[in-house]
Amino acid sequence: MVGHFWPLAASAALFGVTSANPSQFPHRYQNVENRLRQRGSSGTPETTSPPFYPSPWMNPNADGWENAYAQAKEFVSKMTLMEKVNLTTGVGWEGEQCVGQVGTIPRLGLTSLCMQDSPVGVRLTDFASVFPSGQTAVATFDRQLLYARGLAMGQEHRGKGVTVQLGPVAGPLGRAPEGGRNWEGFAPDPVLTGIGIAETIKGIQDAGVIACAKHFIGNEQEHFRQAGEAQGYGYNITQSLSSNIDDKTMHEMYLWPFADAVRAGVGSIMCSYNQVNNSYSCQNSKMLNNLLKDELGFQGFVMTDWGAHHSGVSSALAGLDMSMPGDTAFNSGLSYWGTNLTLAVINGTVPEWRLDDMAMRIMAAFFKVGNTVGSQVPINFDSWTLDTYGPVHMAAGIGQQQINHHVDVRADHGTLIREIAAKGTVLLKNVNNALPLNKPKFLAVIGEDAGSNPDGPNGCSDRGCDNGTLGMAWGSGTANFPYLITPDAALQAKAISDGSTYQSILANNQWASTSALVAQDSVTAVVFVNADSGEGYINVDGNEGDRQNLTLWKDGDALIQNVSSLCSNTIVVIHSTGPVLVDAWYDSPNVTAIVWAGIPGQESGNSITDILYGAVNPAGRSPFTWGTTRESYGTDVLYEPEGPLPQLDFSEGVFIDYRHFDKTNQTPVYEFGYGLSYTTFSYSNLQVAKTGAAPYTPTEGYTGAAPTIGTGNVSTNLNDYLFPNASFPYVWQYIYPYLNTSSSAKAASGDEYYGLASDSYLPPHATDGSAQPYLAAADKISPGGNAALYDVLYTVTADVTNTGSVAGDEVPQLYVSLGGPNDPPVVLRGFDRLSDLAPGQTGVFEVALTRRDLSNWDTTSQNWVISDYPKTVYVGSSSRKLPLQCTLA
Ligand code: NOJ
């Protein structure tokens, strides 16, 4: 058993514990105000991350977690120290069949927990569906559809034997439109993303699968997210980028949707690759202990992103609960945890209660979604091959057996996928009644984006290319298409059934034939164009995950301009991962319609056909702003590191996307929340009712002490932890909790080895299991922060009337002006999708405005405060079309 054991003598360095002046580590509750008084004003980025210890332990009375806690306690009480460690540490990259798995607990009948991407479907398998991206789904502004998508994805994961679906995504939020993974998330607005992530989580977990809200936190760009990856691209950096975010911006923007995730009961959260204020996210006690577990009261477990683990003891004390995929670097055979965590608990560096808490959190999440030990769906697929037979331990190449059972989990989800993609499609322009199409005489479809990839829909690994129609972007947030209906196939079928003439040229550069086609008489030309992006480990055409620019790919602008110069009825369809620059052609009179179809998934062609022909009346709303130039956004990706530890200052504070355009008084091409319909709506009768909710009370008092779940009697005899015996089936490169020597105890003694006083290299209070005071903004039982933040203070209603001639959905939106000099002019606080309003019919739009909706984060009191500035509510159809308004009394 050589190769997976790291000598303990090296462990303090390995664990990333740095010696420090204890005065730098005030008790987590001492002097919080003084400590933070100078910090955290909006737009002044933090460059250091204060310590916060001890790590909060689970609360047996947390709302929605009581039963899960009781079941977990019963199970965890029976576990040995090494069994607990086994639950916290992945078995190594490609050690088993899922993208991540932890060790088994055979003695207690628990098979391995399976972590599997992705946020759009079950990744790396067959007979599973590909759903529209989160960004496209949230453009529906439809809570029911967001929930239904989550439920369907969860059902598919469950059917494959997945325990944790690695999604949904609220980081990136979308600070910069170029951000490569914005499409995996929802929108650069915390409220829209918060509702998107909460509904998706509820759906996934109702299907019996643990959701994983990721990436926590500040993971806003691909460049420099991992030092090794960046070095591979030739950048001279030594550490991952630090996202420097002030306290106010953190609370009002980036943390907000994670609060909604926690409130929705999410079972797991993935900490990100990047550093936050110069401390790695997965060992950042301020982020994990303070914000996530204490203030938000998160009861589930924190897992690392794959390879985002950089230390042993310090990550454990900072609030990490699971190491993924378990090895230090892929296939190193070494782990920061595993053996090292076993030793750290034996020698007291990590208190036993902290390990108990990790195991409790993992098992509680397992039980919370309805699992029972012994009846898990067996893992019936393999991420590393689609072959039916192969090695179950792919990295080691051993354990030949049937690893793919090819279980078809798709049910009738294709219908839902088609509906979501159509309802998330945004009609940006429509003049001369260009749309809906009505049996056009001659339909010409132009562009590579309407056709198929010559290598097939899954021809590029993790969709790392932009060939054919863009049904999915690239990276780990993907799944294999079971089929991909191209726009060309669906539109052709529809046109032919209507008796139209139909021709398509599925290339962007066939100028001669394209010109000849679209210049013909009576042609309606539909031009398909796209802009792609993805995850940083794949470079597509010079785009290292993040987009290099905001222009259309493959000469899309030239294609549109050429076609529209010859055809007076040119309709443009855009598939993209975010906004693109349309300034060069959007107002051309020959461009009669523009449609954003997002990242639609497997039913792409059917969904766009439903919109173009009016089977679905469009009501999707743009989940981001369409600026005139790249610079107009005021934020961008950092593309060139300025030093070995790149610093990404969020100096814009809360002013991203529409908040920035509004503040700087710039007129975008299309604003956030904008979208047209084939009918029209009027808004009237705004009513605001004050509820008389009780005043806000900061939480006071103390938690209980860290519970004893284990025996409290950890043997310090290393012989008790030795690797079983020669007949134990050791798997090469696999991560185990066992020791392979009993002779390291002396060397392992921190005092002797470092010549330091006992524990002096640990932050003060890091091992303190005594009762701790509650934070004012936290809650004693309710996850998501002080429950009174969610008290409804006002109920707002307005009438929305269909004034056109066809039935349609409308998305009324409510914005609030918080009124302060440093507040954005308006912020989204509520919306609804009123479905199927008949001509002349009036629907009532209703929003319950909560205390949080009207508050700012106060960095001094470390709490939410409603300022004295006058508050105004606005209601309308986009962030800039707000015909109704009322000042709150
Ligand atoms: C890295 C990605 O950032 C994360 O989103 C994903 O879940 C893991 N890889 C596993 O594939």
Automatic annotation (TrEMBL):
InterPro entries: Cellulose_deg_GH3, Fn3-like, GH, Glyco_hydro_3_AS, Glyco_hydro_3_C, Glyco_hydro_3_C_sf, Glyco_hydro_3_N, Glyco_hydro_3_N_sf. Pfam families: Fn3-like, Glyco_hydro_3, Glyco_hydro_3_C. The keyword Hydrolase applies. Its EC number is 3.2.1.21. Residues 810-879 form the Fibronectin type III-like domain. Pathway: Glycan metabolism; cellulose degradation. Residues 1-20 form the signal peptide. It catalyses: Hydrolysis of terminal, non-reducing beta-D-glucosyl residues with release of beta-D-glucose. The keyword GTP-binding does not apply. Gene3D superfamilies: Glycoside hydrolase family 3 C-terminal domain, Glycoside hydrolase, family 3, N-terminal domain, Immunoglobulins. GO terms for molecular function: beta-glucosidase activity. Residues 39-50 have a biased composition (Polar residues). Keywords: Carbohydrate metabolism, Glycoprotein, Glycosidase, Hydrolase, Polysaccharide degradation, Signal. Residues 36-57 are annotated as: Disordered. Belongs to the glycosyl hydrolase 3 family. This is beta-glucosidase.
